[in-house]
Amino acid sequence: MSTHVLPLPAHFDEDKVGQLWSVPYQQRAEEARQWARRYHLRPSGEDKKKICLFLIDVQNTFCLPGFELFVGGRSGRGAVEDNIRLCRFIYRYLGMITDIYVTLDTHLAMQIFHPIFWVDKNGNHPESLTLITRRDIEEGRWRVNPQIISQLDIGSQDYLQRYVLHYTGKLEEKGRFQLMIWPYHAMKGGIGQAVVPAVEEALFFHSIARNSQTVFINKGENPLTENYSIFAPEVLEDFADQPVGKRDWKLFEKLIGYDWVIIAGQAKSHCVAWTVADLLAMIKKEDKKLADKFYLLEDCTSPVVVPGVVDFSRSADEAFAAFVQAGMHVIKSTDPLGF
Fold it and tell me: What CATH number was assigned to the domain covering residues 14-107+185-331?
């Protein structure tokens, strides 16, 4: 395995990181093989120190300007700037990163956080970024759209009305977020669900150069719950204590098997923060010392900021501070890494 930082390959173009384009796979595969020979890169299976790069939702829907939920951060170009640094990091440490895991936010139209799920007394759907509270439901401001019940095939109108009261109440008890109605985004099979091209190219290049299969993991298709974290949905059980979802202990066991796990992605305030929070909760049940294996790439993630509407920068920073206090590490992609 290469033990030094590599140069950037000639094909990497920072100006294209914020654009949509098609990766020339065959060309990149040949270049990756040549790169491996030139820099004496060994197959990842031979690595003595196992390093996992764990990427959260680096998808078009969050990472490209003009897409549904572009994470601009306070700079307005947050995810683009993050992914420039992320691509550089992958290429520089190509010979040291053993495996790469990638979570993919994946949604269908009829889900609890999308407008079509809800109607008011006039049959109107809520606007995007509407907050729906338990009290809103109790007072009749919003109810489950009766026209989608048969499509969901998971219960009657009465069941779903009882469920959404339970769900919004559980969210408020947990103190994370109230239920927010998001724009339709990361739609399954759509272009928004795909990994942003510049990062996809880097992942493919790594896969060929190191003989390492990139692992892609979908999350978020359950119609009855949000799923910010890859490890668990926001609510695990319904009002009758019947399961809605479960924790992904298999993924957890795979990650703690690495010597280092380096985490980046979008958005710092939401899917990154809650994935790491769930990871930390699982670590505490297993062995608190495992937190020392995890490194957060602070300059490869940005919070959700909608100017004049919401700014989650402070909550994101507070979450990262708590992760450090629990034993994790916050680093920058430009820091010299002691692999």
Answer: 3.40.50.850
Partners of 131 in the beta sheet?
180
Say if CB 43 and CB 274 are below 8 A apart: no
Of 334, 179, 287, 265, nearest to 276 by C-alpha is 265
**DSSP secondary structure letters along 113-126:** TSGGGEE-TTSPPP
- Where are the domain boundaries for CATH 3.40.50.850 in the chain? 14-107+185-331
- Cα 114 to Cα 123, 155, 187, 203: the distances in Å are 15, 18, 11, 31
Nearest to 162 by CA among 233, 238, 222, 111: 238
What's phi and psi for 270, nearest 5 deg?
-120, -90
Task: Write the pLDDT tens digit of every residue in 111-167.
Answer: 999 999 999 999 999 999 899 999 999 999 999 999 999 999 888 999 999 999 999
Quote the tokens at residue 25: 């796979």
**Which helix (H) or strand (E) covers residue 54, if one does?**
strand 51-56
Two tokens, residue 103: 């979570």
- What local confidence, expressed as pLDDT, does residue 1 receive? 38
